[in-house]
Design brief:
Layout lengths: L5 H24 L6 H8 L3 H7 L3 H16 L13 H16 L2 H15 L2 H13 L2 H12 L8 H16 L1 H6 L6 H19 L2
Helix pairs in contact: 1-2, 1-4, 2-3, 4-6, 5-11, 6-7, 8-9, 9-11
Pfam families: TetR_C_7, TetR_N
Organism: Noviluteimonas lactosilytica
InterPro entries: DNA-bd_HTH_TetR-type_CS, Homeodomain-like_sf, HTH-type_TetR-like_transc_reg, HTH_TetR, Tet_transcr_reg_TetR-rel_C_sf, TetR_C_Proteobacteria
Length: about 200
């Protein structure tokens, strides 16, 4: 039985309504044109209620991105396994990454975030730092494989960035900059296989 007090549940529902309304507003109007008044109207709450949950538009937008980044990082953690073929492990890592990018909300709001970052270098640096944190699992895997003597690189961060670039050149930047649709299953597999094979051709032993 759920013993959580009703007012808390109502507060949670209002917070979710605000976040949903803000996602819709940011996607539709962009960062600069979105206002707390418009978010409150769409959410069906007072402006005061919006500010009770989020002190500013910046804080609201940051919370939305945080939720999307958290969701994109969901799933089982893939760690280096000395007993498995490298290609199989890399395919799992890359396919997990591709699936995390297959989200129209994430892509739309990433587009809004990038546009907002152009006018605010400090905001842009913060967003890039957050995105890099979400990509550390590949770096950790590469570092472990190199330490085990199965990859030849003394710069796992550089190698990881290269791999991310191979993936995002098909599954992120075309969607962000040219409005292309997310990749389908077959296209994801093709991108993953190409990226993994190129990576192993360069760094494999």
């Amino acid at each position: 039985m759920n013993t959580q007090p009703a007012p808390t549940r109502l507060t949670d529902r209002k917070r979710e309504a605000i976040l949903d309304a803000a996602v819709a507003e940011f996607r539709q109007a962009g960062y600069e044109a979105t206002s707390m008044d418009r978010v409150a109207e769409r959410a069906g709450v007072s402006k005061r209620t919006v500010y009770n949950h989020f002190e500013s538009k910046e804080a609201l937008f940051a919370q939305i991105l945080e939720k999307l980044w958290d969701r994109s990082a969901e799933g089982r953690e893939l760690v280096y396994n000395a007993d498995r073929p490298l290609r199989d492990q890399l395919m799992d890592l890359v396919m997990q990454k591709l699936r995390s990018l297959d989200d129209t909300n994430f892509l739309d709001l990433a587009r809004v975030a990038i546009a907002a970052g152009i006018h605010s270098p400090e905001r842009a640096r913060e967003m890039v730092a957050r995105m890099n944190q979400r990509e550390e699992s590949l770096t950790i895997w590469i570092r472990a494989a190199a330490a085990d003597g199965r990859l030849k690189t003394n710069d796992p961060v550089f190698a990881s960035t290269q791999m991310q670039g191979l993936v995002k050149s098909f599954a992120f930047w075309p969607q962000i900059s040219m409005g292309q649709p997310p990749l389908g299953d077959e296209a994801q597999k093709k991108v993953a296989e190409g990226a993994v094979d190129m990576f192993l051709a360069c760094y494999g032993k």
